[in-house]
Amino acid sequence: MDIKNLTDDFGVEVRNFDCSKKIGYDELNLLKKTIQDRHFICFKNQKLDGDTLATFTKNFGKLEAYPEKDKTKGKIEIFNVSNVSEDGEHLDPDDQRVILQKNNSRWHTDSSYRYLPSVFSILYGQETLPPEVGGQTQFSNMLLAYDHLPEDKKILLEPLHQVHSYNDIRRLEPGLPELTYEEKSNFPPVTHPIVRVHPDRNFRKSLYFTSNTSLEIGGMSLEQGKELHKWLVDYIGQPKFCYTHKWQKNDLIMWDNRVLLHRVIPYDYAKYRRAMIRGTVEGEVPVLGPFSNEVRLNNN
Known about the structure:
Number of helices: 9
Distance between the termini: 43 Å
Order of helices and strands: EEHEHEEHEEHHEHHEEEHEEEEH
Number of strands: 15
CATH class: Alpha Beta
Helix content: 25-40%
Mean pLDDT: 94
Largest sheet: 8 strands, mixed
Structural class: alpha+beta
Strand order of the largest sheet: 1-2-3-13-6-15-5-4
Number of domains: 1
Strand content: 15-25%
Radius of gyration: 19 Å
């Protein structure tokens, strides 16, 4: 296994490693340490399908099931992140599955609509695009973004929260069909602090918010919340916080949803095919904020 850094602050590339084979104890511990320390891994030149992707993902925890079965590929734990159907059909840009992909061009962290949000996402590129036409995946480091905040913004954000709702994607993308009663019941709205505290990182703080389920911050008036949300989106998009992954076919990328936001760079959905499958490691703990009991006890 050969590992090299992609940027000074986060991200590595791994070569000469086969993710489809059983991973040894030492190799797995190295990968777990690497994703903890560097937050993003790109495994080059992989050969995977839904089954081998699921098996690899399980090395890092339990597989998360996707809320809507018709957006998955083969099994409910493997999300079809594509404008290509399971049968290989290039989907119409107005197809609900493609509309959902368009929503991914907004900064977000996967599964933030859950009370226990996901830990890792693992995405395999089956059909990719040349970088000049879009389709890259961009990441922003929320640890760095918090560290660089002006002090007055840190004070402002500390008590605030955001409501994350899977159903509210429909507010942003009205072309999507209504969720069923069961789907709504399984994923009621949740609220998470804007400032996330990480006990496994010596209680370091990061930003934690999304743009693909809502466009406002709670704990203030609606207009103030919208204005602050827009400021945050512009702020975390600065190049000094970001890494843009330029896809090559058979790349497998893995990232830490606790400390990175991501988005896809828009492309011509009618002209180009982009086919990817994703496994997601479910979370085991809620998002802690500055006023959570565990954090306050640590500060005393």
